[in-house]
Design a protein that fits this description.
The protein is α+β, with helices and mostly antiparallel strands and 361 residues long. It contains twelve helices and ten strands. The protein folds into three domains: 109 residues, Orthogonal Bundle (Butyryl-Coa Dehydrogenase, subunit A, domain 1); 85 residues, Butyryl-CoA Dehydrogenase, subunit A, domain 2 (Beta Barrel), CATH 2.40.110; 146 residues, Butyryl-CoA Dehydrogenase, subunit A, domain 3 (Up-down Bundle).
Length: 361
């Protein structure tokens, strides 16, 4: 049996990567990070035309009806290009509605998601480790409290909110009592925000019952997609380090000819290759409903957080002083990896969850 991507998956990822290489070079990333709204809108529109927002929407509702593995391949390509788009948030919103929405919610939201008329931001941090100054409570269908590190609010029509009592709630972006404050983070390619709720109307996602299962499923998928984004960024940092080592000269020799530099590049490659298999297997496990899929997602997120940090540091060291300049722009990948490391739980917290899943906690 061959465990590999299908030809269609390989071509789809290549088409996304090719589009990003032409339409989102580093200069464009800099422009969008600096506030170029027109360039940001053009990039989002181009990616939408490639169908990335339809991947997790079932065919019955106008989507492509694909799986998390396909979404992870897109996330990997976007991470490699440090594309300044909030893909993961909208993908998790589509998955949540598809998996847990009522028939009426699916009929209302999924066709609009596939058509790009609805975009969903996600406020999930309070379910993976709320700070003392944050937390969301539900009282008779209204939200009170605060969410931090909310993703995907640019152009969002709805927000998927994790409540402290468990479960997921849909809030319209213009709802009464909802206040947004943009947060300054190291990653300028993706905006994060804080939301304050003051008796804000909210719609429970799904039927009455165990809504925590839907929340856990969304977090599980989020772990896989963040790991894939980090994988793409780490691979490009390795590629850039190898290319630089083949050009930069010291003592009349390219530094790539020095044994120490060769070892650093080999160490990065040796860490990335098995990590790629781990991410793909975690996504496959989610799509196939494997019993250990939640564990695989935790392992992918925590391991890629560590591998990404190692590659980011090592690739920057190979570049020497140039690695810290905006001319090379390596810091965009470095900071993307650092942000992914903490979103939906840092590696220590996620490993603790993995231990509990195995009965160790």
């Amino acid at each position: 049996m061959e465990f590999a991507l299908s030809e269609d998956q390989t071509l789809f990822q290549a088409s996304i990567s090719g589009f990003l290489a032409g339409q989102a070079p580093l200069d464009t990333v800099r422009d969008i990070a600096g506030g170029d709204a027109a360039a940001a809108a053009a990039l989002r529109q181009g990616l939408a035309e490639l169908g990335i927002d339809q991947i997790l929407v079932p065919e019955a509702y106008g989507g492509l009806g694909l799986g998390l593995l396909d979404a992870a391949l897109v996330a990997e390509a976007l991470g490699g290009a440090v594309a300044p788009v909030d893909y993961i948030a909208n993908a998790l919103g589509a998955l949540a509605v598809s998996a847990a929405g009522t028939p009426a919610q699916k009929a209302r939201l999924l066709p609009a998601l596939a058509a790009g008329k609805v975009r969903i931001g996600v406020a999930l941090a309070e379910a993976t480790g709320a700070r003392a100054d944050a937390g969301v409570q539900v009282d008779q269908g209204r939200l009170q409290g605060r969410s931090l590190f909310v993703q995907g609010l640019e152009g969002a029509t709805h927000i998927l909110v994790a409540a402290g009592s468990g479960g997921l709630y849909l809030v319209e972006s213009g709802a009464r009592g909802l206040e947004q404050t943009n947060l300054s983070t190291i990653d300028r390619t993706r905006q994060q925000a804080g939301l304050t709720y003051a008796a804000t109307p909210a719609e429970p996602l799904g039927e009455d019952g165990d809504r925590n299962a839907a929340l856990e499923q969304v977090i599980q998928a989020g772990h896989v997609l963040l790991a894939a984004d980090t994988l793409g960024a780490a691979q490009v940092m390795l590629d850039k380090a190898v290319a630089y080592a083949g050009e930069r000269k010291q003592f009349s020799r390219v530094i790539g000819s020095f044994q120490a530099v060769k070892h650093l590049c080999a160490d990065m490659a040796a860490e990335i290759e098995p990590a790629r298999a781990l991410v793909w297997h975690a996504a496959y496990g989610f799509d196939s409903g494997l019993e250990d899929a939640p564990l695989l997602a935790c392992l992918a997120k925590s391991h890629l957080s560590e591998i990404g940090t190692f590659v980011a540091r090592t690739a920057t060291e190979i570049h020497g002083g140039m690695g810290f300049t905006d001319l090379v722009g390596l810091h965009y990948w470095f900071k993307r990896i650092g942000t992914n490391r903490q979103l939906l739980g840092g590696p220590e917290r996620v490993r603790e969850k993995a231990a509990r899943l195995q009965g160790w906690g």
